């Protein structure tokens, strides 16, 4: 039976913080892309849009503000989750003697 000395976070907490941190960074990057790039220049999986001008289909000059805000909020939430997984100390369990 192994015991944690309490000097640092357990390896499972470090792994979950790393995964949550990577997901947070991905959401933040996608949110920034939604803010900067027009909808017509996005790849298909991010919501590429076209509009009809006469008989031609041209890239849309509009943006995706709701997707941008949603991605940025999700990134912040996952970032907070990563921080909590490292910093939060639960109630110490008394060792059975």
Describe the structure.
- With 97 residues, this protein is mainly alpha-helical.
- The chain has one domain.
- It is 51% helix and 8% strand.
- It is built from two helices and two strands.
- It has helices at 11-36, 65-87, and strands spanning 50-53, 56-59.
- Strands 1-2 form a two-stranded antiparallel ribbon.
- Helix 1 packs antiparallel against helix 2.
- It is rod-shaped, with a radius of gyration of 22 Å.
- The mean pLDDT is 81.
Identify the notable features of this structure and list them briefly:
single chain, 97 residues, mainly alpha
Outline:
Helices cover 51% and strands 8% of the residues.
Give the CA-CA distance, first to last residue.
Answer: 13 Å
Please mark out the parts with pLDDT under 50 across 5 or more consecutive residues, or reply none: none
What is the spatial order of strands in the main beta sheet? 1-2
Helix content: 40-55%
Q: Kindly state the number of beta strands.
A: 2
What layout of secondary structure does this protein have?
Elements: H1 11-36, E1 50-53, E2 56-59, H2 65-87
Antiparallel strand pairs: 1-2
């Amino acid at each position: 039976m192994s015991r944690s000395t309490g000097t640092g976070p357990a390896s499972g907490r470090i792994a979950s913080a790393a995964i949550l941190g990577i997901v947070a960074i991905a959401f933040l990057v996608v949110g920034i892309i939604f803010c900067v790039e027009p909808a017509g220049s996005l790849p298909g999986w991010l919501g590429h849009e076209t509009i009809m001008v006469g008989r031609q289909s041209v890239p849309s000059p509009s943006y995706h503000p709701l997707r941008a805000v949603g991605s940025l909020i999700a990134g912040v939430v996952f970032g907070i989750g990563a921080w909590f997984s490292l910093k939060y100390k639960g109630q110490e369990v008394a060792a059975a003697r």
